[in-house]
Design brief:
This protein has 221 residues and is an alpha/beta fold. Helix content is 20%, strand content 31%. The chain has helices spanning 24-39, 45-57, 61-64, 210-220; strands spanning 97-102, 105-108, 113-114, 117-123, 126-130, 135-136, 140-148, 151-156, 161-169, 172-175, 187-195, 198-203. The strands form three sheets. A five-stranded parallel beta sheet has the order 1-4-7-11-9.
């Protein structure tokens, strides 16, 4: 064959991994790492929110990786070590539960299954979220609370971790930070703001998650 008459086509250089288009699975993997970092206290609520926004705006793998470069990667779909607390299987993030009170009241309490995300909105009303008897099927629970001329109250057991970030405009936004002794205990994060209103999250004295309390009692004999 005459190579001069039939020149070979140049081979395109291999595309760098950083330039590969990001898939939904790639974004979910990064979001999972960020979720663990928030639960472990490596990121605060504001940093987590900023990075999550960047995750779902990212077009390539190269844009995703810097978002977790300073975090330990211990996930392969789940934590690398077995969880001491018995959570259920990981499920895709579904729609948030909405609690709305407009010139009224809305209450969630008793033995109920807590979702990953809950939105609480109060306008000239009151919302009460009592987690002291709730069933936590995941480690991290996020509550987005908005109060305008109203109130949102969140009560948690004393043996979980409670964190949050928010602002009060001529109102009060208070999250009483709590760190559980058990490193795998549920984490509740309360974010939001109050405008001429009140958002308050704090532990309820004497109330413990029964599952954790029973496990500790058995361990101590």
């Amino acid at each position: 064959m005459d190579l001069e008459k039939h020149p070979q086509k140049p081979v395109a250089p291999a595309e760098p991994n950083d330039a590969i288009r990001a898939s939904d699975a790639d974004r979910d993997r990064i979001a999972d790492i960020l979720r663990d970092a928030l639960a472990e206290g490596r990121l605060d609520a504001e940093e987590h929110s900023e990075r999550i926004d960047a995750v779902y705006r990212a077009k390539t793998v190269g844009e995703l990786e810097p978002l977790v470069r300073d975090l330990p990667v211990t996930r392969n779909g789940s934590r690398s070590d077995a969880m001491s607390y018995g959570y259920g299987p990981e499920e895709p993030v579904g729609p948030a539960e909405n609690l709305i009170a407009v010139f009224s009241s809305s209450t969630r309490k008793g033995r109920w299954r807590v979702g990953r995300r809950t939105n609480a909105f109060s306008l000239f009303g009151s919302v009460e979220i009592d987690l002291t008897e709730a069933l936590f099927e995941q480690r991290l629970t996020v509550i987005n609370a908005t109060s305008i001329f109203g109130s949102v109250e969140v009560r948690v057991p004393e043996n979980i971790s409670l964190r949050g970030s928010g602002t009060g405009f001529f109102g009060n936004f208070e999250v009483r930070t709590l760190e559980a002794a058990d490193p795998e205990a549920p984490v509740v994060v309360v974010n939001g703001y109050a405008v001429f209103g009140n958002v308050e999250a704090k532990p309820k004295r004497g109330r413990l998650i029964a599952d954790l309390h029973d496990r500790l009692r058995k361990h101590l004999g």
